[in-house]
Amino acid sequence: MISCVIALIYYSILSISTESWQLIAAQLLQATYVAIVMGNGLSYFTDLLPDSPGLSTTIYYNGSIIGRLVGNMGGGIIAQYVGFRHAYLACLAIVIVSLFILWRTKPHVKSGGAVGHGTV
């Protein structure tokens, strides 16, 4: 979830930047985001499907390939017809949806106490 927050900041900067030094500085955020996602992506899918390590690896790998193909092609099409700034806004929208999906699929830890059940 931290990587989605970093990506949210990164794409926000890209969509409002006006100088090239801002884009260069934002690349540190992008490098951090990619390092976290690439390092923890497989672990995330393995945690979702602990009894099927082969299936989780396949889903991660195929999703990664499809995401790169569709992302590059979609970003190019958006940039071609409406400009780069709108491509960054589309990426920002995808990050927001991803953050929501991660929040919904993340196992929520309940507090361990039996508060209000008559225990002393």
UniProtKB/TrEMBL annotation:
Residues 1-120 form the Major facilitator superfamily (MFS) profile domain. It holds the Pfam family MFS_1. It is found in: Cell membrane. The keyword Transport applies. It is a multi-pass membrane protein. SUPFAM superfamilies: MFS general substrate transporter. The chain crosses the membrane at residues 86-103. PROSITE patterns: MFS (PS50850). Belongs to the major facilitator superfamily. Set transporter family. This is MFS transporter. It comes from Paenibacillus dokdonensis.
